[in-house]
Amino acid sequence: MADTFLFLGDFLFEEQEIPERIPLGGAQALVIHRFPGGAKVVQAMGRDDAPIAWSGLFTGGNSLERARYLDLMRVRGKSVRLTFFEFDYNVVIRSFIFTVERFYRVSYTIELEVVQDNTQPQTSFPPVAFNPAVAEDLATALALGGEIEDDTLSGLLSTMDNAITAVSDFAKTTQETINGVLAPVSAVMQRVDTMIGTVANTINSVTTMGGVLPNNPIAQQASGLIEQVTAFSQSSKLYQLRSVASRIQTNLNLIGAGPNVRTVTVGGGTLFDVAAREYGDPSLWSAIAQANKLTETTISSITNLIIPNNPQSNGGVIPQ
């Protein structure tokens, strides 16, 4: 954590005084009512932040003075501000223990009780960068294909390239589109597996390096040696290509298995109300209708609705 400023009140931690890590988080205060038969009701009472604690080391001629200053802050028991990175807390020093090893070397452990968390809440999460990962692996696969020089493989890689580059954003695409990309990726992997088997047979088909034997013609020995060297070279590239294509397939499957939808239960109202509540935009009702195969906007009874996380705006019209 040397790449941040760690302040506690007016005290700035420096060098080895700054810990490598600071655990954060906490618990949710719960009241649990248990009933016969194992049933229970759980009431959430609010956040219960865990104490913030770490250890460090004071070094240098002013080590004792710096340690004693923090100990005075503990004794006073006043709320002070703790800041580092984007985190901002009001805390009270619960404990501060320091061990004097030399006048210039003092180790310490501090524990802070959180009074208030002033950190800006993180209300959304950044999307996973699938696009750069897939694009980078695609470029590697095409380069390896060019080195392997197999016409069938090159054609399959070209098809895979067209399928992948046709998708502008994998994180927002449909499962149908992902399936359309997975097919050429699988075809590439099958071709690579076939070629790996052929290369392995070539390598294992001779009992001596290049088939070099006293009675074999020189031309035959040279040909066998060239075949083996080529096979060894191709084998390495094929296994690399197999690994890259497999990673593309894994990432595409992760996208397809991602949380693209969620489910909510409503007791009535309209799809306009649901869209306004879930998205802040009533015009996105058509995305909910399409996901649930509904033709009416009115909800007359208790209904479980599928809510797409990445709704496409259709101008309030259900696509035909």
Tell me about this structure.
This protein folds into 3 domains: 7-117, Elongation Factor Tu (Ef-tu), domain 3; 130-256, no CATH class; 261-308. The longest helix has 39 residues, at 218-256. The chain is of the alpha+beta class and 320 residues long. It has a 6-stranded antiparallel beta sheet with strand order 2-1-6-7-8-5. The chain has a two-stranded antiparallel sheet with strand order 3-4. The chain has a two-stranded antiparallel sheet with strand order 9-12. A hairpin with a 2-residue loop joins strand 1 (7-8) and strand 2. It has helices at 63-76, 130-148, 151-165, 175-204, 218-256, 271-279, 285-292; strands at 7-8, 11-12, 26-34, 40-49, 52-59, 80-84, 87-102, 105-117, 261-266, 269-270, 298-299, 303-308. Mean pLDDT is 84; it is low at 218-222. Helix 2 runs antiparallel to helix 3 (151-165).
List keywords for this structure.
320 residues, alpha+beta, Elongation Factor Tu (Ef-tu), domain 3, two-stranded antiparallel sheet, 7 helices, flat
Instruction: Please state how the strands of the largest beta sheet are arranged side by side.
Output: 2-1-6-7-8-5
Q: What's the number of structural domains?
A: 3
SSE class: alpha+beta
Order of helices and strands: EEEEEHEEEHHHHEEHHEE
Radius of gyration: 32 Å
Beta-strand portion reads 25-35%
Kindly report the oligomeric state of this protein: single chain
Largest sheet data: 6 strands, antiparallel
Low-pLDDT windows of residues: 218-222
Total of helices: 7
The coarse overall form would be flat
Q: Give the CA-CA distance, first to last residue.
A: 55 Å
Mean pLDDT: 84
Task: Classify the helix fraction into a percent range.
Answer: 40-55%
Number of strands: 12
